[in-house]
């Protein structure tokens, strides 16, 4: 099944490993580091190997295999200044940020980077991070109502002068930000991403963000979410792009890739995975329709804590390329990729997988043009 809008070419992002423990909660060897020097080399490798975006993670409290973390906005700016073309998305939590303050930081980061700063608004799943800091913990749909206001305030401050906003969570009075970000007709404001799985998340994505990020999903799961997000966007005359999380295990043979997946799961750090599962259970099951993040995630799914195995990007370069293009034909605009050994696997992906993706896409475009001419 295809959706109404299909990009000519899919784009790629990678998870910035700015937290310790890598992207899987497992005791398997991960030749990945959370330190600055490693991440600078990785960002430069990524932009040289076809990645257009990087997403800096947000975590404030040591927990669940991520004991050490670099703060996302400052780390994103550091990576922007170390690269030339890469767009870096900083994940942020409403409730821990005032949107006008973030807008100021974002405008500066955008100016310094030549227009490459973006934000991923994360409504929040980790209750302790709020309560330990003395901040109120809102229930699920209230967190998304707050995020909706947060997104609106950011966009208004970045694009308008003398901003007034009267919401339930934020009040802005005659506020003007200068300098503004480096807005252009093609990118009228720094790109706003918002993730989630629930109906509230899909509604927010359609109505207020530029991009909707999904946890790992198979084809049916992607189609279901796309239909909802697009419907919400159409109600207010908007278009939204769709990003999909996927953990990529590309190896020369399918057996090697499957064996790697098996080892990751077999060596899972069970106490850390179970602690994470307990922490996110409220986030996943707190909606009336049981469609929240991690609502139906198994133990194996949570070893990659954003359900990245579910996307099925595991196998040979040919197998992975074909599956990526199949997601694009269903309406996915971007793959947000995680890896076991980031540095070498990002390079392997750029040399062995991405050229196959582009080749398949070019062949399909050529076929479509030929059919149009018949």
Automatic annotation (TrEMBL):
Transmembrane segments: none annotated. InterPro entries: DMSO2_SphG, Luciferase-like_dom, Luciferase-like_sf, SsuD_RutA_monooxygenase. One of its GO terms (molecular function) is monooxygenase activity. The keyword Acetylation does not apply. It holds the Pfam family Bac_luciferase. Keywords: Flavoprotein, FMN, Monooxygenase, Oxidoreductase. Residues 14-333 form the Luciferase-like domain. PANTHER family: ALKANESULFONATE MONOOXYGENASE (PTHR42847), ALKANESULFONATE MONOOXYGENASE-RELATED (PTHR42847:SF4). This is Dimethyl sulfone monooxygenase SfnG. It comes from Gordonia hankookensis. The gene is sfnG.
């Amino acid at each position: 099944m295809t959706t109404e809008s299909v990009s000519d070419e899919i784009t790629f992002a990678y998870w910035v490993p700015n937290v310790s423990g890598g992207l899987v909660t497992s005791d398997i060897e991960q030749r990945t580091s959370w330190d600055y020097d490693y991440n600078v080399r990785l960002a430069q490798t990524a932009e040289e190997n076809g990645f257009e975006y990087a997403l800096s993670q947000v975590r404030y409290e040591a927990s669940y295999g991520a004991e050490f973390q670099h703060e996302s906005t400052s780390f994103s700016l550091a990576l922007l200044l170390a690269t030339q073309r890469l767009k870096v998305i900083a994940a942020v939590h409403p409730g821990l940020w005032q949107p006008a303050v973030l807008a100021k930081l974002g405008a500066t980061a955008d100016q310094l980077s030549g227009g490459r700063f973006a934000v991923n608004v994360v409504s929040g799943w980790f209750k302790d991070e709020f309560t330990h800091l003395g901040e109120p913990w809102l229930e699920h749909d209230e967190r998304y109502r707050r995020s909706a206001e947060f997104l609106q305030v950011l966009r208004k401050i970045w694009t308008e002068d003398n901003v007034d906003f009267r919401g339930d969570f934020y009040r802005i009075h005659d506020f003007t930000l200068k300098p503004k970000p480096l807005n252009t007709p093609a990118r009228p404001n720094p790109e706003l991403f918002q993730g989630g799985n629930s109906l509230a998340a899909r509604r927010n994505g359609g109505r207020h963000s530029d991009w909707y990020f999904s946890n790992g999903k198979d084809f049916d799961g992607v189609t279901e979410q796309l239909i909802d997000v697009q419907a919400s966007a159409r109600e207010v005359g908007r278009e939204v792009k769709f990003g999909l999380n996927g953990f990529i295990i590309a190896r020369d043979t399918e057996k090697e890739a499957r064996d790697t997946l098996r080892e990751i799961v077999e060596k899972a750090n069970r106490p850390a995975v179970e602690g994470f599962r307990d922490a996110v259970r409220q986030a996943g099951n707190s909606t009336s329709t049981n469609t929240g993040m991690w609502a139906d995630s198994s133990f194996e799914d949570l070893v990659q804590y954003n359900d990245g195995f579910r996307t099925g990007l595991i196998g040979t370069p040919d197998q992975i390329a074909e599956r990526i293009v199949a997601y694009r034909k269903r309406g996915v605009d971007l793959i947000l990729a995680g890896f076991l050994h980031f540095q070498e696997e990002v390079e392997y992906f750029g040399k062995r997988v991405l050229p196959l993706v582009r080749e398949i896409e070019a062949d399909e475009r050529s076929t479509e043009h030929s059919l149009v001419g018949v």
